[in-house]
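Q: Can someone sanity-check these two? First one:
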Amino acid sequence: MTAAPVVYAGSFDPVTYGHMDIARRARDVFGSVIVLLIANGTKRPLLDENERFLLLQQAFKDEPGIRVERAGGLLADYLKTHGLRVLVRGVRGPADVAHEMLNAHYNKKFYPRTETVFLPCRAEYTFLSSSAVREAVGYGADISDLVPPCVAEALTKKYPR
């Protein structure tokens, strides 16, 4: 019996090397992972959904065992509909843990079969966030060591120097 993939969901605005590291490590532990682009109603994205989806596909195009999908609505509904139950979340520190614990509680409430696994980020990604990347590129900073080349190119087109 082949194990079902785990799901690593986020808004990925934009996808960073930190996100990619979590996805790869989840794949290495669980065998396969779905990187799921899902809307976050509390955020105003810089990149629209199609841009983010295409960038995720480009970033992971040569990664065996990693599939990129997108969905709307509740994450718990996506899991239920697709017969999946394991979520992987990357955490950088205590603030992330508190936030992700709350999300794990609600995902389990709305779909009791859900289990959430936390992966601590690597030290080099502790301070990397999509919002920091968006802010840095807005000021013309070189973000090439924070995001894949396709993302750096897309963001620098939005903010030409």
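And here is the second, same format, sequence then tokens:
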Amino acid sequence: MSDLKNFETLQSLCKRRGYIFQSAEIYGGLNACWDYGPLGAQLKKNLAELWWKTMVRRSDIVGLDSAILSHPEVLKSSGHVSAFTDPLVDCLDCKYRFRLEDKKKCPQCGSQNITEPRPFNLMFKTHAGSIEDQGAVVYLRPETAQGIYVQFLNVQTSMRKTLPFGVAQIGKAFRNEITPGPFTFRTREFEQMEMQYFIHSKESSKWYKYWKETRLQFYEGILKNIRYREHAKDELAHYASQAVDIEYHFPIGWKELEGIHDRGQYDVKMHQEGSRKNLAYSTSTGEKIIPHVIETSVGLDRMWLALLCESYREEDVKEGEKRVVLGLPKKLAPIQVAFLPLSKKEPLIALAVKLRDQYMDQYFVDYDETGSIGKRYRRQDEIGTPLCVTIDFESLEDQQVTVRDRDKMTQDRVAVDQLTSYLNNKL
């Protein structure tokens, strides 16, 4: 298990090391909105690329990037306009407003003196064009999936795909959450990685099982504190015949990380009815069918958060001294190699900069010359850098450098002309 006991500890580390910042912090902050810093943005990009390669580098799945602004009729057909609501209540004592869910009392003051629940639509509404009238209403999409369903037939015909095939997408989505948080666990602006797999109805059980197992395998080597949780019949979404969550054990308990859903024919069928366009798929035998859909949906921001939680650890170095380490997987770390001259002497700096520039195209690298070498090691440990390359005065004589391992804290002396093969082997 991770050594992380609460999100506050992680949030402090993330700000200190450039992973994430409160949005508009100098103006008091914008609640439930976050700006990813240099390291956080790179880690997020690395995760997205890993997911994208896993999904799209196969013969049966293609990619899509649909618009963030959603036509209102799309969301009427999908059911979001009428049904995408949360029961909202107010505490009559402290005036705190919150989503009811299974809470029977105010989470802020504990009072049970609350109002009757009333529906609150979670979508952000705006207007397209120069005049704010009802005819110009559009929505910020609450999920990326609808863009895939709407473009299903265009993708299928243009790419000449036959069932089964999938469409994957990474993109921003927006929900006007009433009780967001904590930290980045639930936000109003977030990024989804979704794949909709179109199949013949008679194969739904087969492909549901396949994607359930395949998505769990994705996390091997990344996250350990995960489990399945099958949805009970009374908690299934209106479109789903079966569903399972892959949950991660956050500091706040077991929470959903990814969902795999058997959505049946609901989505394509509803858009066919709403648009009055024929979205039927023609099989090789000439049969016209509305395909079933198996969906895999994960929040990129939540996966990012889970990875940081998993990676955080505290170690006793010596009596009264601890080191904080982000033990990020080497292939995902936002900095993989840091080059550290032992001192600010010009010859050492010159060699360190030369090596940094040499490996910049191959790895995510950093250069650090500030503070003692011990403090710099600790700084890189908190960042999650797997390897530190130290250039000392002997390096100028014997053309060797010292490579320190983040996890083992061991040090190897490596010849400069062997450094490439050494790094390739380690990373």
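A (reply): Looked at the second one. The chain has a mean pLDDT of 91. The longest helix spans residues 38-56.
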